[in-house]
Design goal:
This protein is of the alpha+beta class. It has one domain: DD-peptidase/beta-lactamase superfamily (Beta-lactamase). Helix content is 37%, strand content 18%. It contains eleven helices and 15 strands. A hairpin with a 7-residue loop joins β10 and β11.
């Protein structure tokens, strides 16, 4: 009996030792990876506008770290709780709102947009909601027809009013690709028309609250407060200067979300199952819809750029650059949020992802 017990203990030790060794190697590899990660994030080190970095592997945060300052002029350091303006990374929440309403039977992505926004001109008759989602509508860019000297901030409804006067398109709907902030501003208005709710409240109650994204908000100045807020900066005349808002910083459908890396971890998790979007909705979101000529963007889906197995989107605003890159097949994601106009973080995110790829 004693011999049998000793044999069993020896066998258990033999089975356990490779696992234990693997764990030790994994810890060592992680330390080596962190040194490489820190080197890749070197430009965010020190007393400069900063960044927050998240690397998710099989749903676990293997890197969760911040660099530099969220409020450079105020001496406030960036932390994982820092909330950044996501800019165009916000578009995926606008797309999700549309897909949720389609799941509810309130609209269809095949609906003509003039069904919901009848004040648009006849030139827009053939534009469907899906064309807005995939940047294939041909809509005129609102940035090109707005008053460049205005000091007040545009809202989504102001974009509608600008487009009401444009009885023309860049190309027939569905025949080409042209990145369009105009289209996503209109999508926010369609969400309001179809739901009977304000766009910020709909996104809060149907996306952020169910996922526990308590620090995320479609920010409307004067209506809410962004806690732990990062303020944007641009490098001008040899120094960092605060450049947090422009006259296009208040539109919501194309870029109004403030969020942090912890909340985006929850969003990333929801994109793997049906806790929010159905299998059909996620398939529609991640399936190539439009071929593009942009670098690193062979195709565009619904608010996601598609490059082989990689799904990604960047966001650029005055004083901020962000990116989220996902490889669902490897259950690997990288998020970089920053409050500075340079560098563009996509290449850095891809290099960081390569450190963890398997």
């Amino acid at each position: 009996m004693i011999r049998r017990r000793l044999a069993m203990l020896a066998l258990a030790a033999a089975v356990a030792s490779p696992t234990s060794q693997a764990q030790v190697e994994r810890r060592a590899a992680t330390q080596a990876q962190m040194r490489q990660v820190d080197a890749l994030m070197q430009r965010y080190h020190g007393k400069v506008p900063g960044a927050s970095l998240l690397v998710l592997e099989d749903g676990q945060a293997v890197v969760r770290k911040s660099y530099g300052y969220a409020g450079l002029q105020d001496g406030v350091k960036a932390t994982p709780a820092t909330n950044y303006r996501l800019a165009s990374v916000s578009k995926q929440f606008t797309a999700a709102a549309i897909l949720l309403l389609q799941q509810d039977g309130k609209l269809s992505v095949d609906d003509p947009i003039r069904k919901w926004l009848p004040s648009l001109p006849p030139s827009d008759d053939d534009i469907r909601i899906r064309h807005l989602l995939s940047h294939s509508s041909g809509l005129i860019d609102y940035e090109d027809v707005m008053d460049q000297d205005q000091t007040w901030q545009l809202h989504d409804v102001d974009v509608l009013h600008l487009l009401e006067k444009q009885d023309r398109l860049y190309f027939p709907p569905g025949t080409d690709y042209r990145y369009s902030n105009s289209g996503f501003c209109l999508l926010a208005l369609i969400v309001e028309q179809a739901s009977g709710d304000s766009f910020p409240h709909f996104v809060k109650t149907r996306i952020f609250d169910p996922l526990g994204m308590a620090n995320s908000v479609e920010h409307v100045e004067g209506a809410d407060t962004v806690s732990n807020r990062a303020y944007g900066n641009s490098f001008i005349d040899g120094q960092w200067q605060r450049t947090d808002q422009s006259n296009t910083s208040a539109t919501l459908g194309d870029g109004g979300v403030y969020s942090n890396i912890d909340d985006l971890a929850k969003w990333d998790a929801a994109l793997y199952d049906q806790r929010l979007l159905s299998d059909a909705s996620r398939h529609a979101m991640f399936t190539p819809k439009t071929k593009t000529t942009e670098p690193d963007v062979p195709y565009y889906g619904y608010a996601w750029r598609i490059d082989g197995d990689a799904l990604w989107h960047s966001g650029e605003t005055i004083g901020g650059r962000n990116v989220i890159v996902r490889n669902p097949k490897q259950h690997l994601s990288v998020v970089i949020l920053s409050n500075r106009n340079d560098p563009e973080p996509h290449a850095t995110a891809k290099a960081i992802m390569a450190l963890f790829a398997h």
